[in-house]
């Protein structure tokens, strides 16, 4: 072998010696990447499982919201006739209250002028009973003069 061949082999050997630390560093980096890849796959599986559970929870939530909406619609439909009845009764009550107030106002001057009876008249009397009581009280008043 010639000196040139020996020189080239020494240079090649030096280059190979210099490449060994780089190869070791590369091998360590590849080992870390493989380890991180396993952790990443595990976390990806966990993420997939969490996403699946979230989707299932959303389906259950949507179903319960639809059920609640239907129940509210049914109760609202049941309450509407009651609301209409109450509105009608309130209107009638207001008109009756207005009539009663007018009658009370009109009756106050007559109540102040009329003599008071010893016994209070029953609350529920027919028109004939009221007329009879008025005639009796007028007759008694004339007889007393």
Automatic annotation (TrEMBL):
<protein>
    <recommendedName>
        <fullName>DUF6468 domain-containing protein</fullName>
    </recommendedName>
</protein>
<feature type="transmembrane region" description="Helical">
    <location>
        <begin position="6"/>
        <end position="26"/>
    </location>
</feature>
<keyword id="KW-0812">Transmembrane</keyword>
<dbReference type="Pfam" id="PF20072">
    <property type="entry name" value="DUF6468"/>
</dbReference>
<dbReference type="InterPro" id="IPR045531">
    <property type="entry name" value="DUF6468"/>
</dbReference>
<keyword id="KW-1133">Transmembrane helix</keyword>
<keyword id="KW-0472">Membrane</keyword>
<feature type="domain" description="DUF6468">
    <location>
        <begin position="33"/>
        <end position="108"/>
    </location>
</feature>
